[in-house]
Automatic annotation (TrEMBL):
It is found in: Membrane. It holds the Pfam family Cation_efflux. Residues 10-204 form the Cation efflux protein transmembrane domain. InterPro entries: Cation_efflux (IPR002524), Cation_efflux_CTD (IPR027470), Cation_efflux_CTD_sf (IPR036837), Cation_efflux_TM (IPR058533), Cation_efflux_TMD_sf (IPR027469), CDF_Transporter (IPR050291). It is a multi-pass membrane protein. It comes from Megalodesulfovibrio gigas (strain ATCC 19364 / DSM 1382 / NCIMB 9332 / VKM B-1759) (Desulfovibrio gigas). The lineage of its organism: Bacteria, Pseudomonadati, Thermodesulfobacteriota, Desulfovibrionia, Desulfovibrionales. Keywords: Membrane, Transmembrane, Transmembrane helix, Transport. The keyword Zinc-finger does not apply. Residues 209-286 form the Cation efflux protein cytoplasmic domain. One of its GO terms (cellular component) is membrane. This is Putative cobalt-zinc-cadmium resistance protein. Belongs to the cation diffusion facilitator (CDF) transporter (TC 2.A.4) family. SUPFAM superfamilies: Cation efflux protein cytoplasmic domain-like, Cation efflux protein transmembrane domain-like. The keyword Cell wall biogenesis/degradation does not apply.
Length: 310
C-alpha cells in the first residue's frame, strides 16, 4: 500500500511540474490569462502530490502508546488540506480574472494557447484515471482526493480551451479569455467540495450508512447463542471503519463462554467486512436492560434474525 501511494504521488508531482511549466509559459507568451490560471491550478496539484509522498509514511505508521487508534486521521487532514488549498486557489483566480476584466482592449490569445489547453485536457484526464485506479488498489482516500484534483484540472481546462478558441477566432471577443478564468475557479470549487465534504464528515465521526450497520448486525447475530446486539457505534478512520457494540447473551453462561461468543462475533464481522479495522464488543446479559437500540436494527432473541426497529 505504501509503495502504491508513493508511486501515485511521484507520478503526480512530475506530471504536474511539466504541465504547470508548459501552461504558465504558454499563457504568458500567448497572452492567455485563462491558461495562466490553469497553470496556477496545476501548481496546487504539485503541492498536494508532494504532501501525499511525504505524509503517507506518517499516517501508515502502526499504533503506539500515544496513538492507540493509529494515525489515520492524518490522511483525513491531508484530504481536507487539499480541499482548502483548492478553495483558496479558486478564490484568487476568480478575483484576479474579474479585476482584469476592467482593463481596456485585452490582447487575444494565439493558437499556441489553444494547443496547450487541449493537451492539458487529454493528459490530466489520463492522469486522473490512472491515479483513481491506484487509490482503489491502495484503499486510500488521500490518493482518491489527489485523483479528483487531477480531474478538476482536466475539467477546468475545457472552458479554458473554449474561451481561448473563441478569443483566437474572433479577437473582439478577447475578454472571453478572462471569463474562462472565472469559470475555471467555479470548477475548482466544485472539485474542492467533493474532497472536503467526506473529510469533514470523517473528522466529525460520521457513522457508517444503515446498510453497513445492518450487515454488522447480521454477522454479529449469525450464532444461535447470541440473543441480540445493540448500541452499535461506527466511525470512519480513513477508508476503514471502527466498530463498537453491545452483545446480548444468556445471563447464565460463564464469563469465558461470553468472551468466546464476543471473539467469534468480532471474527465474523472482520472476515465479512474487510474494511472494518477493529471491533470492540461489550458483553451484556440478555434481559438486564430495557434500553432500545441507538441505531436501526436489533436481533430477535429467538431466531437471531436481524429485525429493523421502527
Amino acid at each position: 500500500m505504501l509503495r502504491l501511494v508513493r508511486r501515485a504521488g511521484w507520478v503526480g508531482v512530475w506530471a504536474n511540474v511539466v504541465l504547470a511549466a508548459v501552461k504558465l509559459t504558454a499563457g504568458v507568451l500567448a497572452n492567455s490569462q485563462a491558461l495562466m490560471a490553469d497553470g496556477v491550478e496545476s501548481l496546487t496539484d504539485i503541492v498536494s502530490s508532494m504532501l501525499l509522498v511525504v505524509g503517507v509514511k506518517y499516517w501508515e505508521a502502526p499504533p503506539d502508546a500515544a496513538h492507540p487508534h493509529g494515525h489515520k486521521r492524518l490522511e483525513t487532514l491531508f484530504s481536507a488540506g487539499v480541499g482548502l488549498a483548492m478553495v483558496a486557489v479558486a478564490g484568487g483566480l476568480a478575483w484576479n480574472a474579474l479585476h482584469s476584466l476592467r482593463q481596456d482592449s485585452p490582447l487575444a490569445p494565439n493558437a499556441w494557447a489553444l494547443a496547450v489547453a487541449v493537451l492539458t485536457i487529454v493528459s490530466k484526464e489520463l492522469l486522473y484515471r490512472w491515479t483513481l485506479h491506484q487509490s482503489r488498489l491502495a484503499g486510500s482516500p488521500a490518493v482518491a482526493a489527489n485523483a479528483w484534483h487531477h480531474r478538476s484540472d482536466a475539467i477546468s481546462s475545457l472552458p479554458v480551451a473554449l474561451a481561448i478558441g473563441l478569443a483566437w477566432i474572433s479577437p473582439q471577443w478577447a475578454f472571453v479569455d478572462k471569463v474562462g478564468a472565472v469559470v475555471v475557479s467555479f470548477f475548482i470549487l466544485h472539485a474542492a467540495w467533493k474532497i472536503l465534504g467526506p473529510a469533514l464528515n470523517e473528522l466529525m465521526d460520521k457513522g457508517a450508512p444503515a446498510e453497513e450497520v445492518q450487515r454488522i448486525l447480521t454477522l454479529c447475530c449469525a450464532a444461535p447463542e447470541v440473543r441480540g446486539a445493540h448500541h452499535i457505534r461506527t466511525r470512519y478512520l480513513s477508508a476503514g471503519v471502527d466498530v463498537s457494540l453491545h452483545l446480548l447473551v444468556d445471563p447464565n453462561i460463564t464469563v469465558l463462554e461470553g468472551h468466546t461468543l464476543a471473539h467469534e462475533a468480532k471474527e465474523r464481522i472482520m472476515a465479512g467486512m474487510p474494511h472494518v479495522l477493529d471491533v470492540t464488543i461489550h458483553v451484556e446479559p440478555f434481559g438486564a436492560t430495557t434500553a432500545r437500540p441507538l441505531l436501526p436494527g436489533a436481533c430477535d432473541p429467538v431466531t437471531s434474525t436481524p429485525q429493523v426497529t421502527p
